[in-house]
Design a protein that fits this description.
This protein is of the alpha/beta class and 228 residues long. It contains nine helices and eight strands. It is globular and about 50 Å long.
Length: 228
């Protein structure tokens, strides 16, 4: 929660996060399926109850100022004043999908949530059952064997047939042909994982609609120079 609040203080209009399910069906916001890297716990999130996950220290790994930072619930995150919630579902199954949809529907946040994830089938079902949902298509980085033409075709060809609203392309790999091709399909183009100011500027010059990265201050300054 500290990182989300800080991003919003710096002027970000949205936050990206990952949703996992505990053993007792509670939705928590944590990146990894395993607890080991970002908390003082061990094992899989889905093998621990909400109370167990909630009791863990999820901040010490980052710095002493964040000792005892807890793993937040999805409900807590959705109460933040962000204009956009980019919600990545990382748990498979009907129950978790229905629970996520219910959390968004209860707060009437359909116009502010973008559902993303690698589980294309789950997102397609979510869209079919909730046409008002905005769903985002993820793409892998270009593989070593790909040239630009093959990579671009893989992005544009998938987007053309997938029925998604937003297409995520790594900032380091996006090209003008990808941006122009996706826009010609009426799709929103998002440059993800921008590593530095230069990558952010390049994607903006190419005409992307949105971008994400860890250097929030740099991104805000580039997107809205008058705010800096």
């Amino acid at each position: 929660m500290a990182s989300f609040r800080r991003a919003l203080e710096l002027g970000a209009d949205g936050i990206e996060f990952d949703v996992q399910e505990t053993s007792d069906g509670q939705l928590v916001v944590i990146h990894d399926a395993m607890l080991d890297r970002t908390t003082n716990g061990t094992g899989a999130v889905l093998e621990h109850s909400f109370d167990q996950v909630r009791s863990l220290d999820a901040g010490s790994w980052f710095g002493p100022a964040f000792v005892s930072e807890a793993v937040p619930t999805l409900a807590e995150v959705l109460e933040l004043p962000a204009a956009i919630f980019e919600l990545e579902t990382k748990t498979y199954g009907r129950r978790v999908l229905d629970s996520i949809v219910a959390a968004v529907d209860d707060r009437d946040l359909w116009d502010r949530v973008k559902f993303t994830g690698w589980n294309v089938l789950a997102l397609s079902r979510l869209k079919a059952e909730n046409p008002q949902a905005t769903i985002g298509l993820f793409n892998h980085a270009p593989q070593p064997w790909m040239n630009d033409a093959v990579f671009e075709r893989s992005i544009l060809g998938t987007a053309e047939t997938a029925g998604f609203d937003v297409v995520h392309v790594r900032a380091s790999a996006i090209t003008s042909r990808i941006v122009d091709g996706l826009h010609a399909m009426g799709l929103i183009v998002h440059a993800n994982d921008a590593m530095n100011r230069e990558e952010m500027q390049r994607t903006l010059d190419l005409g992307v609609d949105s971008l994400s990265g860890n250097d929030v201050a740099a991104g805000v300054a580039l997107v809205n120079p008058t705010s800096s």
